[in-house]
# Entry
Amino acid sequence: MLGFAGKVRSLTTVVHEYVTNTLDACEEAGILPEITVEIKDSGEERCIVKVTDNGPGIPKKLIGKALANVLSGTKFHRYMQQRGQQGIGAAGCTLFSQITTGKKIHIKSGTGKETYECDLGINIKDNKPEIENLVELEKSNFRGLMVKAEFGGVKYENSDHGVYEYLKRTALTNPHIAITLIGPDGKEISLPRSVNEMPKRPKQIKPHPLGLESSDLLDFAHVTNSSKISSFLIESFARVTPNKVAEIKELAPKIDLSKPPKELTWDEAQTLIATFKKIKWIAPEMDSLSTIGEKQIEAAIKNILNPEFMSVVERKSKVFRGGIPFVVEVGIAYGGNAGKTTESGAGGSILRFANKVPLLFDGGTCGISEAIRGLQWKRYNIEDFEKSPISILVSVCSVYVPYSGVGKQSVAQEEEIMEEVRLSVMDALRILQRYLSGVKSRTTAETKYKTIMRYVSQLSSDLGELSELKSADIEKSLKSLIENKYSKLFGQDEAQEAEEAKGVKEEAEEEA
Ligand SMILES: Nc1ncnc2c1ncn2[C@@H]1O[C@H](COP(=O)(O)OP(=O)(O)OP(=O)(O)O)[C@@H](O)[C@H]1O
Ligand SMILES: [Mg+2]
# Structure
């Protein structure tokens, strides 16, 4: 369920869990992340993974709960755009290491106040952490967290689903991070930082009543400190006022809103959710999201894919299920290192992201892939997507990403999200199309020019024989005539081309 299935996928999942945790922790602490991922072969289908970050570290008294206690995290019930949601990722890795090698994981943590090392395991009978070999390190400058763990049933592979691809894509949507990968062959690959600014901090907001399901309502009811259901609704959710509570009371008279929220039953929660849908609400706050940003996407694409052309589109935030804000950003890269390498050359590739985390698996069921699948590529001057050097980056950010499974590798097929993805990709493709049609007409002009030039000297000498004029003069005039006509179409230098591409982009944006 957590994504530890398949040897390559399991290893990528481990790296994904550690890296997303680092990014969340650094974002919260306002630190520009520096991450090193080291992978060593340690035998038949076994690897040692070491991830070191420069984040805030984890205090000693919390380390067991954080990394060796399933379903315990600091991000529960926080309605905020973050990578982690469930409190399963890190402990899932500890458990996976334990059941495939019988070993504990090793930790080093430096918080500024304390630095220590220890081994960690989980007592699986009662889901309790087991801490061993705890050593306090005096006078250490180490800041951050280092996790070293061995895993069985895993394989390092340089493929679309491998660790390198995962980290490369992470760098694309997180241009503020610096990542180094040391693979089993000892080679070091660095993905340097593309921008030196931290992304805007996402804002924590209260859930909107229209974005809730019965189970969410019950979850919130069980952790609230409010004494009555009525005050619980006002305090826990956005846009609920005493007036709205009065409306709820009128529409659902059987529910006793003065009883404690902990006594809310499943049936009552269902009735409340159905009642919410009958009420007119003010839309949720839309500035709770932290996008990657147009400039940042451009910088990252340039840094990593170095394409011949790119177009980036960010649309306004929208709402799905009536109450959950989300935003879609799209970047298209063409030529250079864009696309994927296939046996027959380049091929189109779709890079999916949710809250800036790359989604490498379960593409078949993902709402993002599904939204793009039906596009008519030919309309955008792309003959065959599967054979074009093109990368389409689609990023969906939301305070609540509707994943279609616990492994969090595909976005559910929510119609509103799919529609936004489709529109954004079409906007970006329209810009590319203008560029490609420019390239196409330049190529045609160049071919014509070369073909005509081939006949000039024969034609001039024939005309010289037939007329009183000198062949050399005729040739000179003909050449200048042809050059005049065609050089305008293809003789531009790179700066001119870039200027033109910018113009095309602005024009297309206006048109869009
Ligand atoms: N590198 C790190 N630096 C600081 N704190 C961390 C780090 N890794 C994990 N944590 C803390 O440990 C907790 C547990 O992490 P875990 O990955 O299990 O859950 P999560 O990230 O909250 O949710 P998810 O299961 O969706 O990943 C986090 O909520 C965070 O507070
Ligand atoms: Mg996590």
In short: DSSP finds 13 helices and 16 strands in the chain. Residues 17, 20-21, 84, 89-90 surround magnesium ion (ligand 2) (CB under 6 Å). The mean pLDDT is 90. The CA atoms of residues 8 and 49 lie 13 Å apart.
